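Tutorial handout. Part one gives the primary structure; part two gives the three-dimensional structure as tokens.
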Amino acid sequence: MGKSLDPHLDLVCKELLHKTGESNGFIRDEASAALSAMVLGVTPQKALVALIAGGSNHKNVAVRRTCAEYLCQVVERMGPGKALSGVRDTTDRIIPSAAQFASDSSPQTRYYGRKIFFLLMAHEDFERSLQKYLSPATLNDLKKILDTLRSQGLGQLPQETPSARSTGSNQRGSKTRDSVLAPISPNDGGDSPSKGPKKRFPPASDDAEEVKQLCSDLESSDFRTRLRAIDKFQEMTEQNPSIVEENMVKIFDKFMMCLNDSNSKVNLQALVTMHQVTPILAPSFPPPVLTTCIPKVAHNLAASSRDLHDKALDILDTMIEVIEPSMLLQAFAQQTQHAAPKVRPDMTKKLSQLVERTQGKPKQLQLHAVPALIALVDSLSAGGNSAGGINIRPAVQELALTLNEKYDHQLMEVAGSKLQPRSQKVLKELLESK
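Part two.
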């Protein structure tokens, strides 16, 4: 039915959520499958309102857990920008509900509440939204949770106890691992029976061992083992991304070394895999992973191999397309200033593209993009037109013009006061000679 269901969503969602608390496993499974289809097909903002109204305060722990799980999927689908837009019945519903779920009695419900914050915390409006929509007492209680998320990442989804799996009041059904827990990705179009059975990974109890072996193989001294591990990582991401998302920091800590591997085959294969998995993992990338990963990818822009250089560009283009710009601005801006000279021209062009995709004039432009431009202009005024043997002036001009558009052609007023007279003259020339 898709969006034609929107007018009836409150009633339908309430009934389905209540069914997930039934003792009958078949009913629970069917209700979960219907909710899964619903959050993919209806208007996200309508879905979140209906989910919160129908299950956030329910007495049944299974209903609250299901509500938290699907609200998390809706937030993933919306992205941080829309979720924190301040639009009525969006941010004002998401933030208080996530805080409530994050302190629920159920470990699984707490996990999904914290995951919502994990998805949103890199956005520039996150702290302001917390201050606006949470009471001081709730905000104080939440501080420790957020500090843990920033320092340790999200962690794994807690496993349910045998008693929870056997009782209707604590368990929705048996087929949650593959059909319900899998997050929504940009390429997710649903399974088709004609494609044959999907490969199954080991049960959840074996996930930790799978991840441990993968991490060990990614740093093996044998390049062939590293190649097989990279293929395994891509396969795991495509077939069961929830395992990767729950262990993102741990896996990428090892995988990122392959992005600059001394073996060219491993290096290229890691870049190819990074290009493939980025759209799938985009909604779940924690800021520390992106901050560390982007320099690793950018390093390949200085490679003598054209294959490595071009694949690195492909990854950066994909990141710009599928990841919230506010999560990328700082790392991209830093690369225009601190990366190897051969890297800077390409990264300056990519920063321009990222700025162009940024909505409005967020704080990050003032904090990261404008200082990057100032540093580049200062370098040009000192005679540094070349970076790594490449003329960087056209790329700097492109960035200046893009920022000037964002600042309503007032960039000289914004940045000029921070430039020496000689650099002011260079910036003026860049803006006038199109």
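Part three, for discussion. The longest strand covers residues 386-387. The chain is about 65% helix and 0% strand.
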